[in-house]
Design goal:
By secondary structure, the protein is an alpha+beta fold. It has eight helices and 15 strands.
């Protein structure tokens, strides 16, 4: 059985830079999309704002979760169409489409049928046959998605996973909510990090410390989650081959203006074999930077 959908090889320091007030931040924790959520807020009304943020996270989980049968994403996968989709799902899919194009298709949420087939094969104890893999791969492809404010539709048999972008996108939405209530000093950790404009937070990457201020950071690890927990078969699927990637990297960290962008870019980068190609990918997205790439 799979244990976690994402593995984050970074940790944020509890206290921000001493440029902030001497008192520490208010800390609130929870769970969303299978990952631990931590909010660190500097505000006189921090407990109330944290409650609001957690409620927003639960609302967004009801849109993006692939495991909740009542979520909008689950309904889309089950029915093949979703009338009057929520704005957040349309926006996240539009962002995913942009990174799909920038990465030459390496970032592809339509790999869910392949992912599900690999998981099923792992449970039965036998690898996918060539025909099974070909059948699952035939149900993928970004061109099979139709997006409009009236409805989102999928080609018959298709299904989506947004686990490579939704955690970051949720961090961005929480940041927007907190900012709208006057909060300027906060670090939001939904599995991906988003820092509000004021205050510098120290993030510990595998190879160095990184100050984070008014930006987002995401780290992906191809072997942080493996099929069957074997430590070898990555949970990341190469959409061009229709099979788990052969990992070249222990972890990749990307910073960007938004956590959704950083999340998707770090996922796509794991499928590249050269650091120069990852840098070229980040160069296509304004404000994105490769911060760390640790090879295996």
């Amino acid at each position: 059985m799979l244990t976690r959908r994402r593995f984050i090889a970074i940790s944020a320091a509890v206290a921000p830079s001493m440029a902030l007030a001497n008192t520490g931040p208010y800390v609130e924790t929870g769970i969303a999309l299978g990952a631990r959520v931590t909010l660190r807020l500097h505000h006189p009304d921090a407990p109330h704002l944290a409650t609001m943020a957690m409620e927003e996270i639960r609302r967004l989980e009801g849109i993006f979760s692939i495991y909740l049968p009542t979520s909008d994403l689950s309904r889309l996968n089950r029915d093949g169409t979703l009338p009057a989709p929520p704005f957040e799902l349309l926006e996240c899919l539009s962002l995913a489409g942009a990174i799909h194009a920038a990465s030459d298709g390496r970032f592809d949420p339509t790999v869910q049928p392949l992912w599900a087939a690999e998981a099923k094969a792992t449970q039965r104890g036998h690898p996918l046959t060539d025909s099974e893999r070909a059948a699952a791969k035939g149900l993928t492809g970004w061109a099979g998605i139709t997006l409009s404010p009236d409805a989102i539709s999928l080609r018959p048999g298709m299904a989506l996973t947004l686990n490579g972008i939704a955690q970051g996108y949720i961090a961005d939405r929480v940041a927007a909510l907190l900012s709208s209530h006057g909060l300027t000093r906060a670090l939001i950790d939904t599995g991906e990090l988003r820092a509000l404009p004021e205050g510098r937070w120290t993030v510990h990457l595998p190879d160095r410390e990184l100050p984070l201020e008014g930006r987002a950071l995401a780290t992906s690890s191809p072997l942080g989650l493996t099929f069957g927990g074997d430590g070898r078969t990555s949970h990341l699927i190469d959409p061009s081959l229709g099979r788990p990637i052969q990992p070249k990297w222990r972890s990749i960290s990307v910073s960007a203006p938004s956590a959704g962008l950083a999340d998707a870019l770090s996922t796509a980068a794991c499928m590249m074999d050269l650091k120069e190609r990852i840098i070229a990918l980040c160069d296509q997205v304004r404000g994105a930077t490769l911060e760390s790439a640790i090879s295996i």
